Amino acid sequence: MISEKTRERPVTYQDTYHKNRSVTGVETLDWKDYKWQLNNSIKTIVDFENFTGIIFTEQEKQLLEKTIKKFPLCITPYYASLIDPENYPDDPIFRQAFPNPAELDISSCDMKDPLHEDKDSPTLGITHRYPDRVLFLVSNRCAMYCRHCTRKRRVGDKDFVPSREQILAGIYYIRKHREIRDVLISGGDPFMLPDEYLDWILTELNRIRHVQVIRIGSRVPVVLPYRVTNELVHMLKKHHPIWLNTHFNHPRELTLASRNALKKLANAGIPLGNQSVLLAGVNDCPQIMKKLNQKLVENRVRPYYLFQCDLSEGLSHFRTPIGKGVEIMESLIGHTSGFAVPRFVVDAPGGGGKIPVMPNYIVSWSSDKVVLRNYEGVITTYKEPDNYQPINCRKDCSKCNLNRKHERKEDTIGVEKLLANQIETISLTPKDNERMERRTKKAE
Ligand code: SF4
After folding, report:
1. Fewer CB within 10 Å: N-end or C-end of the chain?
2. Has 154 been annotated as catalytic?
3. Protein residue whose Cα sits closest to atom 6 of ligand 1
4. Which residues belong to CATH 3.20.20.70 in the chain?
5. Is 219 touching ligand 1 by the criterion CB < 6 Å?
6. pLDDT tens across 136-174, in order?
7. What is the mean pLDDT of residues 4-20?
8. Which CATH superfamily includes the segment(s) 126-356?
9. Which candidate in 15, 149, 219, 290 is catalytic?
10. Are 329 and 341 in contact (CB under 8 A)?
11. CA–CA separation, 415 vs 49, rounded Å?
12. What is the DSSP pairing of strand 379-383 with strand 343-348?
């Protein structure tokens, strides 16, 4: 939609920043001050034009205005300075940050809340989907509004900034549910909260004895690395074990400023992970993904997930076939260090959670041999053991030689249930299965 013509451009902050690594009219100290960055965020098309020197036609502007009315625009000057104005239509930074009128094309499979986070929400701000962990949304503010955000429905909506009472209601829920051992704090971006407020939330969570670990999801190291101040890191350190997952999608995002932010966090003993989203025209390339993941590891960030793009409204132009993700995994597994390989997952529409998708490495199977192939195409056999004594786990734990008699017996669900020896379930049947309905009627 956006014209590919490079137009004559005025000299901008961005030009000067790229050339001199400082910004005309802006003191370097200001530039590195995250509050300055937030106060000078680009929120209009005109601001963007003035900042980057990229000029749009009147027709383009009309469409862009329509787009940001539905999905607001907000880019930090820092992130905007990474855009290559000479080749902006194909620029991965531009595509993640700048609106595309294609966002207005809502396809029939698009959903406002494809992951049913709201339906799985027992109380405002909490999504309780998995047995032992919850998602706790503590802020709807983000440093930048990523165009591919799965929570587009919420981001930028001022009415959703949770109040102290609402946060306390979430904490109360977590306190009441003793099975919750892991809390993922997300949003929005938790690092958009003032240090003292986040400190308070973390202190409250740390008081809950059954909460063993707190994870924070933040894109700040990517789009506003100056927010990772010494004060923030010092505060986080008090609340260990804290884990942090960030969201780099392209190797160009690992700038000196970002790397410094990651270094501060890693030096504070915070294990770092990365969740990328597979995005058409941004990173749907095995070489880009390999470089990204290798650079992450170099900066002590463990690639954690590669997400298939969700079915959220306005994202159809970003979606790739799932096969593209499998192709990327094929080019990563074995081709680079195992810990530089994320897990490719589809977050199941309807709230089924993350489903891992992999290339197939099992070629065939017999009762005593498995035939496998490796990343080079070598086909090999693994001889199954002759004398393996299967442990009838869960049958009678007190007699089990694995000595777990004091541990709580856990319920089995899904395919795990079919594999459990002592359980008589031999199949799993959907609720509305017609054949089963006929059986019920016949019995009546
Ligand atoms: S930082 Fe995360 S929550 Fe915020 S807009 Fe970007 S992807 Fe969405």
Report:
1. C
2. no
3. 146
4. 126-356
5. yes
6. 999 989 999 999 998 776 665 554 568 899 999 999 999
7. 49
8. Aldolase class I (3.20.20.70)
9. 149
10. yes
11. 54
12. unpaired
